[in-house]
From TrEMBL:
Keyword Cytoplasm: no
Binding site for heme: 448
Transmembrane segments: 6-26, 302-322
Protein name: Cytochrome P450
Sequence similarity: Belongs to the cytochrome P450 family.
GO biological process: secondary metabolite biosynthetic process
Amino acid sequence: MDFSQLWLPQLSLLLVLALPLLVLFLKQWKTKLNLPPGPPKLPIIGNLRQLGDLPHRSIRELSKTYGPVMLVHIGPLPMVVVSSTETAREIMKIQDLNFCTRPGSLVLEHVSYGFRGIAFSPHGDSWREVRKIFVLQLMSAKRAHPIGVIRADEVANMVASISKSASSSSSMSKPVDLTQHIFYYTATLMFRIALGRSYHGKHYDNAKFMEVVYKVGAVLGSFSASDYFPSSPIAWAVDVVTGLRGRLHRNFGELNKFLDKFIDEHMERGDGQEEDLIDVLLGIMRDQTSGFRITIDHVKSLLMDVIFGGLSTSAVGMVWAMTELARHPTKMKKVQEEIRAIVGKKGKVEESDLQQFRYLDMVFKETLRLHPPAPLGAARECIKPSKVNGYDILPGMRVVVNAGGIGRSPEYWDNPDEFRPERFEASEINFKGQHFEFLPFGGGRRICPGLNMGVFNAELGLANLLYCFNWELPSGTKVDIDEKIGFAIHKAGLAVHKKSPLLLVPVEYNGYSLFSCILILYNDHGAARECIKPSKVNGYDILPRMRVVVNARGNREEPRDPSGEYGSVQCGAWTCKPSYCFNWELPSGTKVDIDEKIGFAIHKAGLAVHKKSPLLLVPVEYNG
């Protein structure tokens, strides 16, 4: 037998498969590439061992050794980290067009319905058209008013919920899990903005829907071997054995059923009702004159972007802001004095008040400088051969901007680890990605398109927490600033959350019975109704989708609203707004910690760092 007949075909096939690698090797040898420096890597796992549990911190330290352009390997995949304002400007402005696409991902492709949304889609004509729809239709001035009504309603619900939690303790020193209240506020707010209503108590339940969203978020934050070894059948098998693929299909399928129900309900209802985001998208889908046609999958993917993109950004910023203020009581007092002086005795902070809060704006900027939700941003991918700071960046390489490291660099900030909002007093730095020493929402073409809504959500919620309450730590505790990495919708980016819940204690405001007011608020108005079309009641305008309740115990003596500006038509939870005004202090003998922990939190598809322990404060009477 001629054995050459057996091995010759295999040898020929091997040479054919090896030819591209040989060509690539010769090409690289010929051009003498100048790749960025980086730490030594191990076979298979690359630099994963050096990155540890908090990669953003490890990368910050490594960049001090290897410079502003550093090459690390996530498994076999090369990733370039830029850690200076000059290199960030190169990536996000000068060469933005070459670094504005996203790397592929098994999980993200599935959850984004084949990359039909904004957050995860590669750069191209489809992405540009979908982003245009998002910005012009969903984030337009036309949508500002209905979203503002929803935002005010959910802020009121959050304040009422905190008041109710505080009233359940006779000693009025019961700690409140502020982290939980804040995350529930942002979750219900984004559900209503994206889906048109809360669905709570109907055939859809917020709690169930939120549970499904968290399950999908946990999958988004999970390790996928296929993302790091894209063409390996072994990686595919690893994802099967670990259960990732099973969880992905099961949890995403459950979420998809919810979206189908929401969309079907909108398609079946008649005209004449106020449009929400689903209505707007369905209208665009039906428009035969549009040059770019969107499908139901585009609608679902954009809804996912809105829900996941808005959930954790605002919540993480609010929790870190309250954490830092609890650690710095003089700063908290200063911002509360500003808010209360401007708002006076209106009983609540309104959206129109925000532009007057100069110090609150500085507090929020300083919070995001120290604790950006995604300190490494969302990963970009190089499209064609480029040079950054003299180093070669090859097509297919992932590139991340170390926003967290830049924000804590002594090269750009005095005493960078100190919480000092006053540093922004004479500064024109904003959130728009134009100042490369401050990039909490990214920059360039891939800047977060919903950043204005996210900032409004956070600042209005934060302002009302500081106006209505004083905050204390529970007795014998301190505030940690430990971080954790958890789900946030920046896959390949990290979102950093406080590791533990933030626990603080609220105290009753003098002059009104908090408990009786809560009874009126929750028990005396009956089931809420919803306005269908513009109406007038007692001369006041009632808009579609406003909730309306009837005060069934109006014949009994009730706490009177001293401001008197709302008369007999009052909105939602603000009926008893003076009762919600607390001051917040730390419990006796305690400090605020800022320890972090790694864990899941709804943000953009990647990992997020949380406060390690709950924020515990004590509510104290505020004589406003």
